[in-house]
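Known limitations

Structure tokens in this collection are predictions and should be treated as such. Users comparing against experimental data should check residue numbering before alignment. To illustrate the layout, the record for Glutathione-dependent peroxiredoxin is reproduced below. The input appears on top and the generated tokens appear beneath it.
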Amino acid sequence: MSDNRIAVGQSLPAVSFQRLTDNGLVTLTTEQLFAGERVVLFALPGAFTPTCSAAHLPGFISLAEQFFQAGVDRILCTAVNDAYVLDAWGQQQQAGDVQFIADGAGSFAKAIGMATDSGEFGGIRSLRYSMLLEDGVVQLLNLDLPKTFEVSKAEVLLAQIRQR
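Generated tokens:
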């Protein structure tokens, strides 16, 4: 595990993400995405992968309205994929209110200590996690060990938010 892993109480580093919009590809900074907002951010190893498609993303899609009712302004999903892949996956999954921010080169995952090398599977990927951020500061953080899916689930994060 990484010594430079982000922790509760720390601010997100300044990095850029890409998102595909109706107007084409846009680049967004952490400040643009998180400043002044209460945001759920979750990351997964990759779009179209089995656990990500069958359980991780669908949990956040189905509970989106409950997150909003609990005071969350935005739900963001990130992965070390390009914006075109994430957009196609979001359409295929009917992601609704979940927005995708591409960490194509893994810069964000590396900057917060959440990058892992999956070898032949796909190289650098993100570990699976979920977090609640307020104004870019980590309030809650749930990190799954590689090849597990236990604590980063939407249900777990929503219960923690409701307890706050």
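For this record: The mean pLDDT is 94. Strands lie at 16-21, 24-29, 38-43, 74-79, 98-102, 115-117, 124-126, 129-134, 137-143. Please report discrepancies through the issue tracker.
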